[in-house]
Amino acid sequence: MTKKAFITGITGQDGSYLAELLLSKGYEVHGLIRRASTFNTSRIDHLYVDPHDPTAKLFLHYGDLSDGVRLVTLLAEIQPDEVYNLGAQSHVRVSFDEPEHTADTTGTGSIRLLEAVRTAGIRPRFYQASSSELYGATPPPQNEDTPFYPRSPYGAAKLYSYWITKNYREAYDMFAVNGILFNHESPRRGETFVTRKITRAVAAIKAGTQEHLYMGNLDSVRDWGYAAEYVEGMWRMLQVDEPEDFVLATGTAYTVRDFLRISFEHVGLDWEKYVKFDERYLRPTEVDALVGDPSKAEAKLGWKATVQPDQLARIMVDADIKTLECAGTPWIDKVNLASWTPEAVL
Ligand code: NDP
Ligand code: GDR
């Protein structure tokens, strides 16, 4: 029997890699997409096959995490074996500007989806995209037992989703797990997250089309991995016998300044000549340092990140240079997800 997966957030960075991975494993993949006045599917266009074609395995459905009834109808219709809740207002800085909207999608959206699973009377395995932002002010290294201390409306909303996922596991015996993922990036990363903002600027500055890059706090420490590897970890969390929560991380610590230096150096430029400060990119409360301890995932899932932050910066700069060369058409990185092993992703 062909397995069916339902993914919220399929048009996002992680959703696109996950859809690619599941299709490569023979799944029928159903994705929730939001109606927008312009096309918002550029990250998955390369996977799309006209649904009239009998070989089509990817199906997209309009809906929104704010619309619980629609979620029930869809789940009852699709009857998925696995549900991945990746949809969210996922930008930490933006969550200070739109706290209520963030709570509604990133927090309440999860309970709508969990309730939709129950109401539809199905028993899929459920993955919740939890985040290292849960740790917030708690110093590193952080693992599954580290206390949470969120520092933003986004972190607080994800905290609700974390606990409600755990509660549904205990209350209703659902196979529902939290993947507590540390920052993961790629050429498909949203353009306003710090890594992609940097690598796009490096490509543009090198090409002579941009003069400066305005940035906020350069001191924060993050644990940046490659998103294509992290979706394999998500899938593995749903394949084990017992539902458990897992951290996925590289275990390395780099500052934003380090990422700037490595990215500019890759094209032979000195970052200090181009980067300027703009306080608009500061957050009312910052998360100073996130460095994960992924040893549980390594021991129980056989999952280990292989791409380190310095290599990731170079992959992303090269991709942004290629995108500019294709006159701005996003260059889609090709990763052999079907044959991923902890030893080799590229
Ligand atoms: P993106 O911001 O790239 O993608 C977010 C997705 O959520 C998009 O598909 C977006 O749709 C969708 N979405 C937003 N609001 C709604 C809504 N109201 N209803 C339905 N869908 C909605 O995020 P990532 O791919 O980077 O992250 C995936 C998930 O993992 C998110 O929940 C994020 O918070 C979490 N996470 C991410 C980490 C990272 O480092 N990337 C680390 C830890 C957790 P649209 O395209 O239409 O905007
Ligand atoms: P983060 O990612 O907040 O960790 O959340 P982001 O890339 O936005 O920021 C990382 C760090 O860089 C500092 N910073 C800047 N950030 C942005 N976006 N723009 C800037 O100009 C800038 N200058 C400095 C930030 O202050 C911060 O310290 C991401 C998201 O993907 C979440 O959804 C996810 O849950 C967490 O990672 C883990």
Automatic annotation (TrEMBL):
It catalyses: GDP-alpha-D-mannose = GDP-4-dehydro-alpha-D-rhamnose + H2O. Its cofactor is NADP(+). Belongs to the NAD(P)-dependent epimerase/dehydratase family. GDP-mannose 4,6-dehydratase subfamily. One of its GO terms (biological process) is 'de novo' GDP-L-fucose biosynthetic process. HAMAP family: GDP_Man_dehydratase. Keywords: Lyase, NADP. SUPFAM superfamilies: NAD(P)-binding Rossmann-fold domains (SSF51735). This is GDP-mannose 4,6-dehydratase. NADP(+) binds at H212. It comes from Labedella endophytica. InterPro entries: GDP_Man_deHydtase (IPR006368), NAD(P)-bd_dom (IPR016040), NAD(P)-bd_dom_sf (IPR036291). GO terms for molecular function: GDP-mannose 4,6-dehydratase activity; NADP+ binding. Catalyzes the conversion of GDP-D-mannose to GDP-4-dehydro-6-deoxy-D-mannose. Its EC number is 4.2.1.47.
